[in-house]
Amino acid sequence: MVAPVILYGSPVLRKSSADITGEDNITGISETLFSTLKNAKGIGLAGPQVSLLKRAFVIDTSPLSEDDITIEKYEKVFINPMILERNNDDVMFREGCLSIPDIFEEVKRPSKIWVRYNDLSFNIVEEEMTGIVARIFQHEYDHLEGILFIDKINPVKRKILSPKLNKIKILSRGSVNYYG
């Protein structure tokens, strides 16, 4: 099922998410996140972006790998993810967000992270991530904490973006289904 993508300005994007338990429909959550992500032609989507305050997100680098053969296709769901460790090698990269359409800014993040999460069978997985997958993981993980990528940019730049952000806020009041 394709869900509406929640836009900047909605309070749900600023809330922390709860852990997923065995009581939750993990398969349904995964299917909703993936179908919504593919419909929006994005590369990552977290629960809060579809009004689900649960600790889950998906990554699919297919749109990037179609444009750049050096990017490997990577598609996975992450349940109850945690960042265990980050390296000190921060890199800048231009990020965007389905919940903040048409705004792209440079964000500094660690180039390598070590993570733990549950897969769809609720098995615990630990993994080292680098490159674009590490970048997307950190961006989506932030959504679970109520943090947006614009929170990580220079305050002067954020001030300059205020008129665009305010337009998105107005749009979010009228319709959350920007990509539906």
Key words describing this protein structure:
single chain, 180 residues, alpha+beta, Peptide Deformylase, 5-stranded antiparallel sheet, two-stranded antiparallel sheet, 4 helices, globular, disordered C terminus
Summary, kept brief:
With 180 residues, the protein is α+β, with helices and mostly antiparallel strands. It contains four helices and seven strands. The radius of gyration is 16 Å and the shape is globular.
Report on this structure:
The protein is an alpha+beta fold. The protein has a single domain, classed as Alpha-Beta Complex (Peptide Deformylase), CATH 3.90.45.10. It is built from four helices and seven strands. The strands form two sheets. A five-stranded antiparallel beta sheet has the order 1-2-3-6-7. The protein has a two-stranded antiparallel ribbon with strand order 4-5. A hairpin with a 5-residue loop joins strand 6 (112-118) and strand 7 (124-130). The radius of gyration is 16 Å and the shape is globular. The N and C termini lie close together (11 Å).
Describe the secondary-structure layout.
Blueprint: H1 26-40, E1 44-46, E2 56-60, H2 62-67, E3 75-86, E4 90-97, E5 100-110, E6 112-118, E7 124-130, H3 131-144, H4 155-174
Antiparallel strand pairs: 1-2, 2-3, 3-6, 4-5, 6-7
